[in-house]
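Hi everyone, sorry if this is the wrong subforum. Our group has a chain we'd like a structural model of before ordering constructs, and none of us has done structure prediction before. Sequence below.
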Amino acid sequence: MKATKMKPLFLLIVCNLFFISANLYSQKKEIKKSKIPTDVVNVLNKYIEILTTSESVEAAAEKLIEIAGGNLLTPSMYAITEDVKMYSLKKDWQNAQLYSYPVKITRCILTPNGTDGYQETYIKGDWYKIWIDKKLDERGMPAPISIIKPLNGEPKIISNIGSL
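Answer:
Right subforum, don't worry. Here is the predicted structure as tokens:
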């Protein structure tokens, strides 16, 4: 008799988990390139410009501060973290010349109300994960760059760099 009482409870739990996960998944959606806000595309182009015109990773890090947000920044918000500089930014800086400039966007996933950072560097807004294409003569897959557009303020490059 206990097994028959447990069966409806089990089905209820499974159904709730299904609907909750479906709701969370549905928040992320692919959008057309034309639906990406101009200021987000401008920040994306600025990022590639910084990477391709800077003579060193340190120079790129200095320039990046104005368009960076979230976990890329130290708590003071006046510098790029050393880990980001040594690994993620260095990789993007080394490989940026393989990508088209101005950028050629191949895909974009929008996550409304995304967040990044902690305490002083916390940022919340619409999160755009944008894939950019390589130059015509370069082989390889497009790479994603994440930009968050806060409710108030300018869009910022956020923690998911290092994929170029």
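For your construct planning: The chain has a mean pLDDT of 84. The radius of gyration is 20 Å.
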